Structure formats: structure tokens, C-alpha cells
Amino acid sequence: MTAMPASTARARSDHLVDIREVVDALDPQTAGAEMHAIIRELYPICRSITGEGLRRSLRVLQRVAPLTLHEVATGTAVFDWTVPREWNLTAARLSGPDGEVILDADRMNLHVLNYSAPFRGKVRLDELEKHLFSLPEQPSYIPYRTSYYKEDWGFCLSHDQRARLRPGEYEVLIDTSLTDGSLTYGELVLPGALTDEVLVSAHCCHPSLANDNLSGMVLAATLARLLGGVARRYTYRFLFVPGTIGSIAWLALNEEKARRIAHGLVVAGVGDAGRLTYKRSRRGDAEIDRAAIQVLAQSGQDYDVRDFTPYGYDERQYCSPGFDLAVGSLTRTPHGEYPEYHTSGDNLDLVRPDRLVDSLRRYLEVFEVLESNLTYVNLFPRGEPQLGKRGLYGSVGGGSHTAATQIAMLWVLNLSDGSHSLLDIAERSKMPFADLRRAAQALEAARLLRAKDRSG
Ligand SMILES: [Zn+2]
After folding, report:
1. Which of 115, 159, 217, 433 makes the best surface tag, with the fewest CB within 10 Å?
2. Contact between residue 243 and residue 293 where contact means Cβ atoms under 8 Å apart
3. Where does residue 56 fall: left (phi above 0), alpha (psi -120 to 50 degrees), or beta otherwise?
């Protein structure tokens, strides 16, 4: 279904670097500014679960990574759901009794109820009220509201502004269309030595919301670009899908491919100032769960781990019982737990370049763990092998880094009996995975260690 983009195919034969080099080379300022610039470009576009806004947004992401756009026709049955009619917005304006424009989706697209049916006419305030949405508890924010599966029209506005509406006749112009068309999603596959896949999935259906939606889209696209130049054991599949219906459609149309997904992460809400939060897969103790928790535990920062729940983002679909894929979700503050969530407060200021880069780094580190979580066999298991005569024991020593590397070597040698992976060793030793990995590479080069069933 997905043709391999030429640039990806080329990248395989070019010099491929180790994922650790990519992590170490991350320049927080440049990477943060680049990601934030794309978020700013995407912010004003009126996205939804279908339509031109979604397509335009995916085309912007194509400048970051060579994803392919796919279309699924209106009416296509996808498990228990049906791909809806395509929604497009031309204009949405509310004018007051004196003819003044009160709300204009051109200025802020949250003002139009997302998926609003077309409507044009004059209505009295008491009738209009039935079609207005505001937040009495957060009176300065415009709420984000949708009506995908029930035909309705409406406007969203701040409660402060709503309170100022005077009685009289209002002119409603909602120039939208709901027609047979298609649902669009983006996909990029980076082949690795293994056909087993790592899934990265981001939802991309929200209009002007920066953290919930745009941060995940841009982080996923940036990851795809960076991993394109990395030597890969796993195959990586990136999906940019409208929430719920998009992931359900992909699963329904790609059941065979879905079976190859060995590990996965749903990306969302990765730019706010809050701590990183990992939500476990439905399985709870899958390798992806352990890898993510290991990275967070070694990050030196406060973090949180949550058990799986059947609500949230598209992990709900990937972890539905008929698939039960090992897919967790790595976010910062979880959805619904910050006051700006699903309001106009989730704007460009809420997303911080430095937090985007911190999140990007942790994603790369999780993939580093997956990529190099091999099980080794100590070839000199009786007594410790003599490291000094092989140049592996602190001849240049003294530094704490050297000491850590040596302790890491002792852990790897001791536990590499063919039944402990590097991640097992990291959990037991509480040492950073990267140190253990470096130690294992040095020991393997000195022929003290052999990888069991190395693939790739
Ligand atoms: Zn959302």
C-alpha cells in the first residue's frame, strides 16, 4: 500500500549513524526553534477528522519527513465504524444586531463548531443561545467542540464575550460543506533489518490547539526525519491519523501489517512545561513499557507512570482486545489535566521549544533501548575475565565516567548468561542503559561477549 519514498530508500545506502550519535548531536536551541516554527505554521489551519485542512497540514509535514498521504473514501466500513462525509470550511461568521462581526473563524478557527453543518440565516438571541458553547468556569477561554457524528451547527466563544451579547437579531453565516469525499492520513515506513515494527502514531485532527495535537505531529515528523538517517534493526512505521476514526481505519485496512507491530508509542502533548508521563500499554509489562520507564528513571527529572486505561488517545484502538498491541503513550502533562486543554489557552505560548526537544530526546532514547536491547553470552564465565590485559581496565582511569563504564562492564559480564537482556541488566543494576550498551560493545569488540541471535 505504501510506496517507499525515494529519499528513504537512498538514506539506507548512505552512511547510517548510530542513534546515540543523533541524541548526542541534538542542539536544543536549533531543534526547538525548528519544531516550534512548524507548529506556528500549522496552528492557524482549520483541521478536522477529514478535509482540506488535514491534507494541507500533512503536506506541511512532508517538508519535515517524506510521508505518503492516503485517502479512505466516505462510506468505507472500518470495523464498527463508517468513514464520514468530508467536512470543509469556507467561512463562519456571526454578526450582531448592529451588523458588526462578533465571531469570525478566519481570525480564530475554534469559533466554529468543528464539523458544523452549513447554516445561513437570522436568528434571535434566545434561539442562537442553543448553538453557542462557552466555559463558565474558564470565562476567558474559547472551548474546542466537535459534532462529528450528529449534524448540528454552532459557535464557540469565551464566556466573557457571551455575557456581553445583547438581545436582538443575529446573522449567522456558516459556509461549510459535508460531502462524499475521503479521510486522509499520512504514513511513512523506514525499513530496518527486521520486519518487526515500531509504531509511532500521532493524531492530527484538532484545529488551533498547539500542545494537544500539533506538538505530537511535529515531534513524530521530526523523529521520522532523524531515524531516517539511523542504522535500524527494527522497521519504523509512522502514522499521522485523525483521532479514533483514523487509527480504526488504518487497523481495519491493514490488519496483516498491524500484526508486525512489536512496540509502539502514541505521541501527544509533548510541548508543555509539565513532567513526562508514560502510560503503559494494555499488557502493562511489555518491552516498550520497560524501555520507556527505564529512560524516564534515568532522565534525572521528575516523571510519572500511569497504568493503562481504555480512554485517552489512539492507544485505545491499538490496545483494543482484538489487537492488544504493545503500544503505550509518552506525553508530558496527560490530556485533561492542564487547564488549557481543549481550549484557546492551548496556544503557541503553552508549547515550549526546550520541552519539545526534551521530549524528542526521550523518544530517541526509548528507541535506542529497543534497538540495542540484545541478550549476550559471556564467553569467559568462570571467574572474571582479566580486563586489564585487554586494555579495558582503567589504564587512563580516575574519571567517574571511566569508573561507571567499568562497573557497567562488570554488570554486563556477570548477568550475560544468555538469559538476561541489556534492559534486564539496566533494571537490576539501576545503571543508565547507554552506559551498559557502551560496555557491551567494548566487551564484544574484545571478544569477551557474544550477542545471542543478533538480527541486524
Ligand atoms: Zn484532544
Report:
1. 159
2. no
3. alpha
User: Which region holds residue 427: left if phi is over 0, alpha if psi is between -120 and 50, else beta?
Assistant: alpha
Cα 213 to averaged position of ligand 1 atoms, centre (Å): 7
CA of 78 to the centre of ligand 1 (A): 22
CA distances from 177 to 1, 58, 90 (A): 29, 21, 8
User: Any idea how long the chain is?
Assistant: 456
CB 35 within 8 A of CB 363: no
Return the axis-axis angle of helices 287-297 and 353-372, rounded to nearest 10°. 130
Show the cell assigned to 394.
Answer: 582503567
| Cα torsion 23, 29, 34, 39: sign | positive
Rounded Cα distance, 255 and 91, in Å: 39
**Rounded to the nearest whole angstrom, what is the distance from the C-alpha of residue 388 to the centroid of ligand 1?**
56
Instruction: Report how far residue 205's alpha carbon sits from residue 271's, in angstroms, rounded to the nearest whole number.
Output: 17
pTM score, whole prediction: 0.94
What are the backbone dihedrals phi and psi of residue 371, each rounded to the nearest 5 degrees, phi first? -65, -35
Q: Which residue has the cell 569508573?
A: 403
**If you measure from the C-alpha of residue 342 to the centroid of ligand 1, how many angstroms do you get, rounded to a whole number?**
6
Question: What are φ and ψ of residue 302, in 5° steps?
Answer: -65, 145
* Residue-level pLDDT, tens digit, the chain, 456 residues: 334 444 444 444 457 899 999 999 999 999 999 999 999 999 999 999 999 999 999 999 999 999 999 999 999 999 999 999 999 999 999 999 999 999 999 999 999 999 999 999 999 999 999 999 999 999 999 999 999 989 999 999 999 999 999 999 999 999 999 999 999 999 999 999 999 999 999 999 999 999 999 999 999 999 999 999 999 999 999 999 999 999 999 999 999 999 999 999 999 999 999 999 999 999 999 999 999 999 999 999 999 999 999 999 999 999 999 999 999 999 999 999 999 999 999 999 999 999 999 999 999 999 999 999 999 999 999 999 999 899 887 645 455 567 788 899 999 999 999 999 999 999 999 999 999 999 999 999 999 999 997 654
Say how far apart CA 184 and CA 74 lie, in whole Å. Answer: 10
Distance (Å) from CA 362 to ligand 1 centroid: 22
Within 10 Å of residue 121's Cβ, how many Cβ atoms? 10
| Closest residue by Cα to residue 61 from 266, 218, 271, 212 | 218
